[in-house]
Specification:
With 294 residues, this protein is α+β, with helices and mostly antiparallel strands. The chain has 14 helices and seven strands. It has a five-stranded antiparallel β-sheet, with helices on one face. It has a two-stranded antiparallel ribbon with strand order 6-7. Helix 5 crosses helix 6, helix 5 packs antiparallel against helix 9 and helix 5 runs antiparallel to helix 11.
Length: 294
Amino acid sequence: MTLRLAYRPPYDWAAMLWFLQTHLMKEVEAVEDGSWRRTVVLGRCRGWVSVSHLPQKNALQVTLSTSLTPVLPLLLRRLRDLFDLDAQPQRIAACLAQDPLLAPSLLSHPGLRVPGAFDAFELGVRAIIGQQVTVKAATTVSSRFAAAFGEPCETPFADLTRYTAHPERIAGLTVDDVAPMGIVSAARSRAIIAFANACASGDLRLSAAQAPDEVIKKLVSLPGIGPWTAHYIAMRALRWPDAFPKEDIAIRNNLGGMSSKEAEARSQSWRPWRSYAVMHIWESLAVAKAKKKP
């Protein structure tokens, strides 16, 4: 089955695809030839989905296995959230372009979106894994995690061979089960298991329908989850446009070496679109880093 999902132009597809490619869980997700695809578990339905860009139509083309037809509305909602298709780029740009720090990125990356999360639990696990390590290292460990605890499956794609691990599966693990994946500490392993238990029990619900401030409070009450991780999860899994991980060292350095308190104050003019400001800063830093490579 193939259909289209429309968006408000402009849309920086290249930046979205690059972000997803550098943050994916191998065997569960893949990016190839300008398309993103992944395995899907929604309720009792299992299958796969592939998404590509139709720039002349201001839309994304979605191809999915027929096994997912019973959950089509939910699947499409997940995709709209993941690809941030309901964003209002003109309105966001009008606010952020007033800041000279962000203006160059807004010109070079019009329509930059905030990548969401197809699976909020999966995103949370990756966020915990990614604390204080490089994006590349986090992606490597996350992929090992998926390979160890995800369920094997068959798809038409050689690079999609597992379904993502569900909260109940991870909640039943021990630190000794998790540590061999390359998790940097026992405390980090315990944080992942505690997060899984909170999600599996229903004590923690990660959806755009939840109040971000309340979810952030619950997240930081869990062992091993601090404000940075909580705001990152809020930005992507809760679709909160005003999340701001003020502890982010890259953001603080980009702001001239500010403290987290100073960065919070500096960000006030970006409200209510601070998540988009964060993406523009990260994108600018990624571009600058790429230019330095020989």
